[in-house]
Description:
Largest sheet: 6 strands, antiparallel
Amino acid sequence: xxxxxxxxxxxxxxxxxxxxxxxxxxxxxxxxxxxxxxxxxxxxxxxxxxxxxxxxxxxxxxxxxxxxxxxxxxxxxxxxxxxxxxxxxxxxxxxxxxxxxxxxxxxxxxxxxxxxxxxxxxxxxxxxxxxxxxxxxxxxxxxxxxxxxxxxxxxxxxxxxxxxxxxxxxxxxxxxxxxxxxxxxxxxxxxxxxxxxxxxxxxxxxxxxxxxxxxxxxxxxxxxxxxxxxxxxxxxx
Length: 237
């Protein structure tokens, strides 16, 4: 049996006997490689085998976290029955939300303006963020906000909920949205954000959010990690 498979099977055995319980973090690849006297690539292949069998999940800087065999203990099951932001969603799930801002600029973009139905020179707040729950990166989202309608966002503190800012500071609560969900493969930057050794299918959510009067304030494209998110829908006849 190849070395990486031997390591993989030994780790599975330790999961089975409770030595490595659900929720524990596997040793860093470099440290395990040095302790076993093998190459780091060998350990990477072993960890990737565990991930493909859904026994571990890549959790960014935390490393590989052991899951409950195919039904991840860290899998999230948010509902999709009403409009809510990431911050509210995390709190409903018992997680502590946080954000890491990667890019924040006031821009004019003709293609984005056409989505909003505004003139090509209209200003937008372009915001690229990594959204985290309990310190784990769960989504990477690019959003554009209508500064013609909500100029106060340009200088606002965006470390928390933008939806709350729109409602409380700008007096423009969002009441409904048009949303699509599709499968997508993460690019190199997104894999780095999520800590993926190789791309795995994710959920790409595109949303256009409106006020009660039908004024469009937000367009966002968010990539949510496929090894953690599982959305719920309740349908009635």
